[in-house]
Design brief:
- 42% of the residues lie in helices and 25% in strands.
- It is built from 12 helices and 15 strands.
- The strands form 3 sheets. Strands 1, 2, 3, 4, 5 and 11 form a 6-stranded mixed beta sheet that branches. A 5-stranded mixed beta sheet has the order 8-7-9-6-10. A 4-stranded antiparallel beta sheet has the order 13-14-12-15, with helices on both faces.
- Strand 3 and strand 4 form a beta hairpin.
- Helix 1 crosses helix 3, helix 2 packs antiparallel against helix 3 and helix 11 runs antiparallel to helix 12.
- The protein is globular.
């Protein structure tokens, strides 16, 4: 290819970039007009504008847009890459309407932090919280519009603290996001492999890399800490300390990788829930989560699950937690396909309510898109 051909291609790229910039600006102006319409409608109804009552972020709408973009993608970019680009466009446009504050569990550099940015985009104001309970408190008090908490890992199971916080919280599940967990052994620039005397990480990360650590570092002390990001901070500050953490923590604390992808299972994935105050309308491809308790008698669980089988509704998760009101009694955390506004789901929930001691819908929300 001649220099003349390269120049022509570069001119084409420059022209396309200019057109993309024009269209992005046009889209951003439309987003601003959407905000103005919402504010005007609230003012006409209430006589004044209370920004806390305005739903600038619509989870079902964003899911529908991303699905449409992926379905229409002609290539050569992969569907997920295109969806991520549009996620950032929507995030930046939404920030023009009202910058959102989202609480997440853990310090900066955790996988929950990564899940927050994956779901909301980098234009969101992400606020770290010291505990899962504190994320719930931040959202319940209105200090943050939404929160992001881990709920299950594909190899280590449910995150019980998250389920327990739903017991007494008025918050709803507004969305879900899945993050592929890739773990690395990280050290600061002053530490080489021969000097590692301690390996630190959250207990779940240590469990997810247990086989690899047993095979490669069997004699080195392992210490569980509050989060992988805390372990990365310790590795950055202390010579001889290695952390098990992901790429975000490595970048955040400027750590080097002694080994990469040390997780025991290649498909290791953690699922996170987005929590907020509002019920989410149907998006077309949804999940519903409920908590239910029943009488402690033979066949009780079967009677709860029977309506799903009769209606042909697939369960995606069922787990148990001890009841806080009665010894040796349990509540069930159940997730299934469909939205609680769908007629079959409404009928199922009505039947379950008649058979149970307590039924608490936690929300219906779009299934993870990317």
């Amino acid at each position: 290819m001649s220099n003349g051909d390269l120049d022509k291609l570069r001119q084409q790229i420059d022209a396309i970039d200019s057109e993309m910039l024009r269209l992005l600006s046009q889209r951003a102006r439309c987003a601003q007009q959407v905000a103005e319409v919402k504010l005007r409608e609230i003012e006409e109804q209430d006589g004044k504008v209370d920004l806390t009552k305005v739903m600038f972020y619509r989870p079902e709408r964003e899911a529908q847009v991303l699905r449409r973009i992926m379905d229409a993608n002609p290539g050569p970019l992969p569907d997920e890459a295109v969806a991520r680009i549009f996620r950032e466009v929507m995030s930046a446009c939404l920030a023009l309407e009202r910058p959102m504050e989202v609480a997440y569990f853990g310090p900066e550099g955790t996988f929950t932090h990564a899940a927050t940015l994956k779901h909301f985009g980098n234009s969101v104001i992400a606020i770290p919280s010291p505990s899962i309970a504190h994320v719930f408190t931040q959202v319940e008090s209105g200090q943050c519009q939404y929160g992001v908490v881990p709920v299950e890992n594909s190899t280590e199971g449910m995150v019980n603290h998250t389920i327990d916080n739903f017991m007494n919280s008025p918050l709803k599940i507004c969305g879900e996001v899945e993050v592929r967990i890739q773990l690395h052994l990280l050290v600061n620039a002053r530490t080489d492999a021969s000097k590692v005397r301690k390996i630190v990480a959250h207990q779940q990360a240590l469990a997810q890399a247990r086989n690899w650590l047993d095979a490669n570092w069997p004699l080195v002390e392992r210490v569980a800490v509050a989060s992988n990001a805390e372990g990365a901070r310790m590795a950055a500050a202390e010579d001889g300390v290695a952390a098990v953490a992901g790429d975000m923590a490595a970048d955040q604390y400027q750590l080097s990788k002694l080994a990469t992808n040390i997780e025991d299972y290649a498909n290791n994935t953690t699922r996170f829930l987005v929590i907020g105050k509002e019920w989410v309308p149907p998006s077309g491809r949804d999940k519903t989560s409920i908590i239910v308790s029943t009488h402690n008698r033979p066949g009780a669980l079967y009677r709860l699950l029977e309506p799903f089988e009769k209606a042909g509704i697939s369960l995606t998760r069922i787990d148990t937690r001890p009841s806080r009101t009665q010894n040796w009694a349990y509540v069930f955390f159940i997730e299934f396909e469909g939205h609680q506004e769908d007629a079959p789901i409404r009928a199922i929930l009505s039947e379950i309510e008649e058979k149970s001691l307590m039924l608490k819908p936690l929300g219906s929300y779009p299934r993870a898109v990317i």
